[in-house]
């Protein structure tokens, strides 16, 4: 065990020696570290959770355990591990537990460490950490930081441009970068090597489905699980229902389909946005719109060979809303009016509908503009909301109609 932990220390020190892009973060890191609450960093695989934790602790005396490590899991002995940590990291102030959900009954062990007064930073690639384990055993004992692939701002940071303060000679390059991000997403590993995007993300997608889902849940019919994942990524931004998916894919039961859909959400691969309705019963019955955590995964895996820039932009806007703290379980929905007009995102604050967001890549056609504006206004009337936004690729203006003021915003400013 001492050898395993010592080897992980060498791995930690090598990771700390690398240069990194400092991510834009709204949390006060010093205040978080000073708190005795557990610091939980969640998000999909390979988006920089471990890097974020290392950067938070770079100047601190901290111990490190990486649970994406078979030798550690195979030789696991909690008491021996704690003794060896004291040997390898004498007098450490913080303990970083990386991908801790791979340890069986990790939540009970973490709860024990918390009671012993350990200052813990935890990373994990599974939403179930929050929905069940964290929410029961560790209720009220943690602060959460959610990591996602690079935002458009961070992608510009990486390319040494300030998205919101561009010089005239940088604007042509900015257009190219904005289009690149729309099509290829923001996974840190590929922003510097775009030629690797499809092969890398193809492998990552398969790894998440097989390792984080099939293996974790002992899924026997992996073919069905993979078929569902491929169907969802090819139908991103479309409404789906478990009943229709069961029939379309020939699955054995609706229950199995629902279970697989939940499994594919756990590693932050897919999100499902409910259709807004004041009656919870009806909201639960309606189809949900499916979104992917990064546009690059669409490029790598979706069946469609044609550019669908409208849906890519909608997916990009969705991920940005998640980044801002909106939650598909609480305050983000889509809506369809009584006349079947649709608005992409209904954003709620408390019980009040705060904002409606429509996404349209190209609003230059009068016919397209009329369709999008009429849909937005009809939905605004039914939902009693007057803060209306249309996000476009590069159009910026204000549209006044029927007493409503609609802000048309390019995605770079949104």
Structural class: alpha/beta
The first-to-last residue Cα distance is 50 Å
Question: What's the gyration radius in Å?
Answer: 23 Å
Strand segment tally = 14
- The helical percent reads 40-55%
Give start-end ranges of low-pLDDT stretches. none
In spatial order, strands of the major sheet run: 9-10-11-12-14-13
Quickly describe the structure:
It is built from 18 helices and 14 strands. By secondary structure, the protein is α/β, with parallel strands linked by helices.
What report would you give on this structure?
The protein is an alpha/beta fold and 414 residues long. It contains 18 helices and 14 strands. The protein is globular, with a radius of gyration of 23 Å.
Jot down its keywords.
single chain; 414 residues; alpha/beta; six-stranded mixed sheet; 18 helices; 45% helix; 18% strand
Strand-helix topology:
Elements: H1 2-16, H2 29-34, E1 38-42, H3 49-57, E2 62-66, H4 70-74, H5 78-88, E3 94-98, H6 106-115, E4 120-124, H7 128-136, E5 142-146, H8 152-158, H9 171-184, H10 188-191, H11 197-215, H12 222-234, E6 239-240, H13 242-249, H14 254-265, E7 270-273, H15 280-285, E8 288-292, H16 295-301, H17 309-323, E9 332-336, E10 342-349, E11 352-359, H18 366-383, E12 388-392, E13 397-401, E14 404-410
Parallel strand pairs: 1-4, 1-5, 2-3, 3-4, 11-12, 12-14
Antiparallel strand pairs: 6-8, 7-8, 9-10, 10-11, 13-14
Helix pairs in contact: 1-5, 9-16, 11-12, 11-16, 13-14
